Amino acid sequence: MYQQILDNLLTKNDLETLQDEVSILETTNYKFGDDGLDEVLNKNVRFEVSEAIKNDLRGNDITISHYVKQLQKKLDDYQSIELVVPFEPTRKNMEKISDWIRNNVSDKIVINYRYNMYLIGGAVIEVAGEYRNFSLSKLVDDFFDEHTDKVEEIISK
Amino acid sequence: MMKDFNYYLDKTGEIGYVEKNLKSLVYLKGLPEIKPNEVVLFENGYVGLVLGFDEKLIETLVLGSVDVGLGTKVARTGQEISARVGDELLGRLVNSLGLTYGEEIKQVPTSENNSNSKVLEIRPAGIDKRKDIDTPFITGVSTVDLLISLGKGQRELVIGDRKTGKTDFLRQVVFSQASQGVVCIYCAIAKSRFDINKTYDYFKEKKIDKNVITVASSSSDPSGLIYLAPYTAMTVAEHFRDQGRDTLLVLDDLTAHAKCYREISLLAGRFPGRSSYPGDIFYIHSKLLERAGNFRVIKKNEKGEVENKEAAITCLPVAEMTMGDLSGYIQTNLMSMTDGHIFFDIDLFNKGMRPPINSYLSVTRVGRQAQSTLLKSLSSELTSFLVKNRELKDFMQFGAELTEETKRTLDMGEKIEGFLNQGYDLMVPLNANILVIGLFWAKYFKSMGVDEVKQVTRQFIDFYLKNENVRGRVDNMVSSSADFEQLVNKLMEDQSWVSTVIK
């Protein structure tokens, strides 16, 4: 259960959108009970998410309120990683990166992509306040800082 | 390499973001290894000071006057806040971080960025490094030096209503001490820029600025800088103390500092206590004032030999009262953590007394142990006389007939009060003070009026300051007298030389 929904979570934006949708479901269920579910799923929730929820509810004997609460708990466990890259990643790039993370780190991670062309290459990674700069621009800066004298000598020639 | 934001990001490997902004206070998310009192650097170049944190957010005081936007990146510096210290500050007007006053804070204030800087928050020295107060501290103001004697290393609160001449008195004391080569630090806390410049110009005008450092935070400065100002001033004082030099530290004024801290605490959501001050308001001031005192200093001389010296930080914190109410919260706090207080009476001010110091309501707890036997006996005699004089004045109101004795006492009392009303432009050396009081007891001024006495005493003091022979004679007479009675007897035997000097 939930796997179909969670497999589509690649980015922080995806996570926040899904959390908003789950919140709407929770509120509707609280106000109108099971009667309001179909309308909300058709009007306020994305199609793929709506289908996934309907499949999960069809195959299992649980109430909507319990389903939504469990889904909310699972979403709260997700952690976000900031990834600054020097290009605008496509959906395929994101899927590849997310697959690697799921296989090597954890399956409860989403990525927030930011674009900064001045990195030139590589990436900057931020997780839970930790910051690591693996960009090409930093390597170049470090090189020039270490060899300032030699560079000046070459330029002066 | 320039130590900018990216440098600290790479050095510490941690990043934070601004989650909440309350003007001078911001809350950060991230920075997992942050410590209290650590300096943080914002992406836009502004600097912050970490006050505290919980498991989610870090409370940071911004040391700048611009709003920091939500989502702004923040880097740790890994260092505690420090201020620039050193001899190069002498004669200068600096801000709460030891940098030129009025300049934007572009450099991160840590010891990494400036080798000549010291951490602001340190624990006060223990008892093993302290020494008894045994050297008199001369202010140049007769009322204080004779009746409320201070000692070097004493913390004496200067308390009074607003506009009663406290700052003028303090300038007088700074002038008196700086002229003797003592390093003076005047800390203006939340003062107007006009007052700060007026005080700074006074030191330059009197040509004492080479021994004076002015640490200033104006009322328009960010709360963070106002909060740090007295700690910076104390840190600078400790630097000179460690060199074996006596220092005078004036904190003008701590009630404004308390108000600034209250503002920060209420913004931070701390629970308000009495008069809405936070619960740690006492600690904020006590940890500062405990750093003053008389110390044993161990330093190496040029030959590399260890020298044991004595150096004092004499502290004069200022507290403002309202309507003569000595029982205010901050006022009583400060009175309990100092070694006495000098009370500026608004009634005396309105009667034209300058400085309007009420010696009956002033206290000195440790100054008397630094007095010589002569000064102790003089002080005791003078105090008794003035109390008796006051009682007789009160008795006069009933319109009873006065005896000759009473008239003489009242006459002498009026003349002494005229002498003590010295104004702010006159600095009276201690021995000159002692001799003048001795002359009063030797009845030298018996036939003179109040104005004539004032004029004659001023002339005498002037001669004392300018004429080496006169000075030598007076100093000799004072030092050779075991007590006040002996001095008076000597003056009664021969006082004609005084008339010769004045004429």
Short description:
The complex is a heterodimer of chains A (157) and B (503). With 157 residues, chain A is α+β, with helices and mostly antiparallel strands.
What does this protein look like?
The complex is a heterodimer of chains A (157) and B (503). With 157 residues, chain A is α+β, with helices and mostly antiparallel strands. Chain A folds into two domains: 3-76, no CATH class; 79-146, no CATH class. In chain A, 59% of the residues lie in helices and 14% in strands. Chain A has helices at residues 3-7, 12-32, 37-43, 47-59, 64-76, 91-104, 136-146, 148-156, and strands at residues 79-85, 109-115, 124-127, 130-133. In chain A, helix 6 (91-104) links the parallel strand 1 and strand 2. Chain B is elongated and about 85 Å long. The mean pLDDT of chain B is 91. With 503 residues, chain B is an alpha/beta fold. In chain B, helix 5 (223-242) packs across helix 6 (254-267), helix 7 packs parallel to helix 8 (329-337) and helix 11 packs across helix 13 (450-466). Chain B has 16 helices and 19 strands. Chains A and B meet through strand 4 of A and helix 1 of B.
Please describe the topology of this protein.
The complex is a heterodimer of chains A (157) and B (503).
Chain A: H1 3-7, H2 12-32, H3 37-43, H4 47-59, H5 64-76, E1 79-85, H6 91-104, E2 109-115, E3 124-127, E4 130-133, H7 136-146, H8 148-156
Parallel strand pairs in A: 1-2
Antiparallel strand pairs in A: 1-3, 3-4
Helix pairs in contact in A: 2-5
Chain B: H1 5-12, E1 16-22, E2 25-30, E3 38-42, E4 47-53, E5 58-62, E6 73-80, E7 82-84, E8 93-94, E9 117-119, E10 136-137, H2 142-147, E11 150-151, E12 157-161, H3 166-178, E13 183-191, H4 193-205, E14 212-218, H5 223-242, E15 247-252, H6 254-267, H7 281-289, E16 293-300, E17 306-321, H8 329-337, E18 340-344, H9 346-350, E19 363-364, H10 373-396, H11 404-420, H12 430-441, H13 450-466, H14 468-479, H15 484-493, H16 496-502
Parallel strand pairs in B: 8-14, 12-17, 12-18, 13-14, 13-15, 15-17
Antiparallel strand pairs in B: 1-2, 1-6, 2-5, 3-4, 3-6, 4-5, 7-9, 10-11, 16-17, 18-19
